[in-house]
Design a protein that fits this description.
- The structure holds 3 protein chains of 3 kinds.
- By secondary structure, chain B is mostly helical.
- Chain B has a domain at 61-232 and 251-266: Orthogonal Bundle (MetI-like fold).
- Chain B has 14 helices and no strands.
- The longest helix of chain B has 32 residues, at 65-96.
- Chain B is globular.
- By secondary structure, chain C is α+β, with helices and mostly antiparallel strands.
- Chain C folds into 2 domains: 2-233, P-loop containing nucleotide triphosphate hydrolases (Rossmann fold, 3-Layer(aba) Sandwich); 240-347, OB fold (Dihydrolipoamide Acetyltransferase, E2P) (Beta Barrel), CATH 2.40.50.
- Chain C has helices at 42-50, 92-102, 107-121, 136-149, 166-183, 194-200, 218-223, 228-233; strands at residues 2-13, 16-27, 31-35, 57-62, 65-66, 77-80, 154-158, 186-191, 203-208, 211-216, 240-247, 250-252, 257-259, 271-276, 282-284, 294-303, 307-314, 317-324, 333-337, 344-347.
- In chain C, helix 2 (92-102) crosses helix 3 (107-121), helix 2 (92-102) runs parallel beside helix 4 (136-149) and helix 3 (107-121) packs across helix 4.
- The longest helix of chain C is centred in the middle third of the chain and has 18 residues, at 166-183.
- The chains are: A mainly alpha, B mainly alpha, C alpha+beta.
- Chains A and B meet through helix 1, helix 3, helix 4, helix 5 and helix 6 of A and helix 1, helix 4, helix 5, helix 6 and helix 7 of B.
């Protein structure tokens, strides 16, 4: 005689207990992310200007900010600067990170030590990185400038020169962040199985060929993800620019993120700033989605 | 094709290159530290050698800096503690639960980690003004909590995933309830990961500049923001800036070297398996 | 009195049916083996008895109690996992005593029971070690010990020997057998290895694709397999299965005539699957060729030492014959007889046993 059940079993009770453990975090997260998110979108639909009372409820031209964006030369310029910064960051950090990883890959005591200490730039507070490089780029006190002058190759100040300011920032940023790609590349290199490498060696391949045909394909997905992370992070660049150039000279180093900051906190144009921020979020969301796709295996460990 | 010769030190060339590279990379780091000990007169003029002085650190001590340093400690520690309290059980639940939608939560968490701070500050600035949370440590902790929570969940979940389900089933048969199992079996097995997560969480909050800049003024300003203060005044107080910078970065450097194994995961906010 | 009963139990995972309408009554104190290939539902059924999986339909009873909706800890069961599932951060002694500790048993009691279990299993010197310091066999015994200490009603073992190497497996098999005799509790044992099943079980439950194929003692299953699947699963070398047709009092193929067992209840000219174990096929000397059922054209001859396994063509089908050592060679043509009393007849469509 069979009974038709679907009474609560142990697995259901467990699920219920688990949900109770998850709930507080989700509530907090929802409160702290969804609410500001919604607020941001709403504000982006208004011409909110803190100096103009009543402007926060003006929904007469919801897409006004968005339309205005593309006609704002300073905004368009900032996107160009951002693009330069992002592309340079991704390329340089991947190449240098990979290069250093290849150098540090073999297991000798010095290299193992180096792997730990090479991380220092990455963990420093960004503002400290900023002041350090500010000092190093200031001709009066920088030992680098002094050394170069002594060698007969005097270098002009880079931060005050419009054509070099951005690259100085890129340089400092690369110094700061390359350990990240280095670590990811190292981890990936260490997971390349030995047998194809040995087979290639037996077949007579030299080091470069082994790298190109055996190691590289293996680590390529990791590098792709690392590149995406670098890309997303480059959009957040702020402390270096703030302390080293303040967006200048002129607007040469004014990336989009910085431009929003200016709009919101110098000109009080919150509505406009919000609109740009919304677009940035959309971009970040899309890139995060791609990362999620790549890093989550198909059996959906998340579900 | 070069044959491998069995030297005593087959990699010495690379080792030399490594040492050289390491020195070059760490040069700015050491530069800042030595700058903080240079007497004022020697900063612009001086050669390689100088008599170290503590005058800059002394000046810091008598100024506002210790206060902001304490703020940093308090806000970072509080945010980390709260994030662990909420986030660790949440990570466990996401690891073990069999309901759908946990994938979407994962994406949400990733986006939270990746979002540019500016997207949050505009709404938060206004809200905080309204709630009187502007320039308070509480307000800052709330903001740090957002990212810290996402980070904790993201980092701890793979650690929980790595604990075999069978272990928990054995515990269930032995008589443990869901959360008893968690506390007596699963959590102890993830202790190293927990420690590393806490450290990385603390570092992320400690290093923050943007939020502190925008959301604090005098009462709750943190150490990174205080450093900038040395630029506003007449002439740049390089010595003091360097001293402040050194103090701010020391805890971070020490902690990081300790947990370097887990740094990739934390900073990538995601585990990458080939 | 039965210890474990399953009534109309189903288990579905979404669209997939893992266990289909299982009815079982397992007697008290016996060692029952769930046998079958991977994916047949045996482990799922075990886990449903343990309470680790919920039943989609049906009832589960342990000792007259309806445990269908009870937590595993309330079912009075103990389990040994395939990967031992020992708590890595606890010592052997702590592992053994954990279940009792959680239930609030007094420390002195725990120590006593841990001591007696470890004596029984030879773990006395290992009590302070951690699992990673143990060998596979030792971990296995700790897993057994953990179940023993709890003094549960039913012991569930999920392929406990599959992670051990062959020699250790044989040794541990013996130990489990002796252990069962000693403690006299009901055991349910899951495995895909028929040798383990045959040697350990009081009763075997053969499963395939979620359906119970047959329940019986090892020899019952061996002597009278209920269907074609069971017939070919049990027994090594595998039973021969020939396609023949009923023709009056015989079973005829295209080129052979096999005497049918008396009282055969099958339609005339019905197609049948006829089974016979390789060692029951009789090789006739040339002088008795007249009473042969057919001819075997030997293809392969495996000399196994005491016996010889011949594989070849018979009536256009494949036949395996196991005889005491002979010097037959590939290419030989031998007269063979399939005795009627050694035949297993199955319906061609359903695979069910007819005689």
């Amino acid at each position: 005689m069979t009974v038709v059940p679907a009474g609560p079993a142990w697995t259901d009770r467990r699920d219920r207990d688990l949900v109770l453990g998850l709930a507080p975090a989700l509530v907090v997260l929802a409160l702290l992310t969804v609410t500001p998110g919604v607020y941001l979108v709403l504000t982006s639909l208004t011409p909110l200007n803190l100096a103009v009372p009543g402007s926060e409820w003006d929904f007469s031209q919801p897409l006004g900010n968005y339309a205005g964006m593309f006609e704002d030369p300073r905004f368009v310029h900032s996107v160009g600067v951002q693009a330069q910064l992002s592309i340079a960051s991704v390329v340089l950090q991947l190449l240098i990170g990979l290069g250093v990883a290849l150098l540090l890959h073999p297991n000798t005591p010095i290299r193992q030590l180096a792997r730990s200490w090479m991380l220092v730039p990455m963990v420093l507070p960004p503002i400290v990185v900023g002041i350090t490089w500010l000092a190093l780029f200031t001709v009066d006190i920088s030992p680098i400038h002094r050394f170069l002058a002594w060698m007969g190759l005097p270098m002009p100040p880079l931060l005050t020169n419009p054509s070099t300011a951005l690259w100085a920032i890129v340089f400092a940023g690369t110094w700061q962040h390359f350990p990240f790609t280095m670590l990811m590349a190292l981890a990936a290199l260490q997971m390349v199985p030995e047998s194809p490498i040995e087979a290639a060696r037996i077949d007579g391949a030299n080091r470069w060929q082994i790298f190109r045909h055996v190691r590289l394909p293996f680590i390529a997905p990791t590098l792709a993800v690392a590149g995406l992370f670098v890309l997303i992070d480059s959009v957040k660049a702020f402390p270096l620019i703030f302390i080293m150039t303040d967006g200048g000279p002129g607007e040469v180093t004014e990336v989009t993120n910085f431009y929003v900051y200016r709009q919101a906190f110098t000109f009080s144009l919150w509505g406009y700033g919000s609109a740009i921020a919304v677009l940035m979020m959309a971009g970040v969301f899309a890139l995060s989605w791609v990362i999620d796709r790549i890093t989550t295996p198909n059996d959906g460990r998340w579900s | 094709m070069t044959t491998r010769r069995r030297h005593r030190f087959p990699h010495w060339r690379g080792d030399v290159a490594t040492a050289a590279l390491l020195l070059a990379v760490l040069f700015p780091f050491f530069y800042l530290i030595q700058l903080s000990f240079r007497p004022k007169e020697d900063i612009f003029a001086g050669g390689l050698l100088f008599t170290p002085t503590l005058e800059h650190y002394g000046a810091l001590w008598h100024g506002n800096f210790p206060f902001s340093f304490v703020n940093s400690v308090v806000t970072a520690a509080s945010a980390t503690a709260l994030a662990l309290l909420f986030g660790v059980p949440a990570a466990y639940a996401l690891s073990r639960a069999s309901f759908r939608g946990s994938r979407r939560i994962g994406l949400w968490i990733l986006v939270t980690r990746m979002a540019p701070p500016i997207a949050f500050t505009i709404p938060l600035f206004i809200t905080f003004r309204f709630l009187g949370l502007h320039d308070t440590r509480t307000g800052l902790v709330i903001v740090y909590l957002t990212f810290s929570l996402a980070l904790v969940i993201w980092m701890m979940k793979p650690f929980f995933d790595a604990v075999p389900r069978e272990l928990e089933e054995a515990a269930a048969i032995d008589g443990c309830g869901t959360w008893t199992t968690f506390l007596t079996i699963t959590l102890p097995l993830t202790a190293p990961g927990l420690a590393a997560t806490a450290v990385i969480c603390f570092i992320q909050s400690w290093n923050d500049f943007f939020f502190a800049l925008i959301l604090t003024r005098t009462q709750a300003s943190t150490a990174p923001v205080a450093i900038v203060g040395f630029i506003q005044y007449a002439g740049w107080e390089w010595g003091r800036m360097a001293a402040a910078g050194t103090l701010v970065m020391m805890p971070v450097v020490v902690f990081s070297v300790l947990v370097r194994k887990y740094l990739v995961r934390g900073l990538a906010a995601g585990s990458v398996k080939g | 009195m039965s210890t474990v009963s399953l009534e109309g139990v189903w288990k579905r995972f979404g669209e997939v049916v893992a266990v289909r309408d299982v009815d079982l009554n397992l007697p008290h104190g016996g060692l029952t083996v769930f046998l079958g290939p991977s994916g047949c539902g045996k482990t799922t059924t075990l886990r449903m008895i343990a309470g680790l999986e919920s039943a989609s339909e049906g009832r589960i009873l342990i000792g007259e109690r309806d445990v269908t909706f009870l937590d595993p800890k309330d079912r009075n069961i103990a389990m040994v996992f395939q990967n031992y599932a020992l708590y890595p951060h606890k010592t052997v002694a702590e592992n053994l005593g954990f279940g009792l500790k959680i239930r609030g048993v007094a420390a002195a009691d725990i120590a006593a029971r841990v001591a007696s279990a470890s004596r029984l299993l030879g773990l006395a010197e290992l009590l302070e070690r951690r699992p990673k310091q143990l060998s596979g066999g030792q971990m296995q015994r700790v897993a057994l010990g953990r179940a023993l200490v709890r003094d549960a009603e039913v012991f569930l073992l999920d392929e406990p020997l599959s992670n051990l190497d062959a020699k250790l497996r044989v040794q541990m098999r013996e130990e489990i057998y002796k252990l069962h005799r000693r403690i006299g509790k009901s055991m349910i044992y899951v495995t895909h290895d028929q040798v383990e099943a045959m040697t350990l079980a009081d009763r075997i439950v053969i499963m395939r694709d979620g359906v119970v194929q047959q329940v019986g003692s090892p020899l019952e299953i061996f002597d009278r397999p209920a269907n074609v699947y069971v017939a070919s699963f049990i027994g090594s070398p595998e039973m021969n299965l020939l396609d023949l047709r009923r023709a009056g009092g015989t079973l005829a193929g295209s080129n052979c005539t096999v005497e049918a067992p008396p009282g055969l209840a099958a339609a005339p000219d019905a197609a049948l699957k006829v089974g016979i174990r390789p060692d029951h096929v009789v090789v006739l000397p040339a002088s008795e060729a007249g009473s042969a059922s057919g001819w075997l054209d030997v293809d392969v001859c495996e000399q196994l030492g005491t016996t010889t396994l011949m594989i070849g063509g018979f009536d256009g089908q494949r036949l395996r014959v196991l005889t005491p050592r002979s010097n037959a060679r590939p290419g030989d043509r031998l007269a063979v007889r399939l005795p009627a009393d050694r035949l297993h007849l199955f319906d061609d469509d359903s695979g069910e046993r007819i005689a």
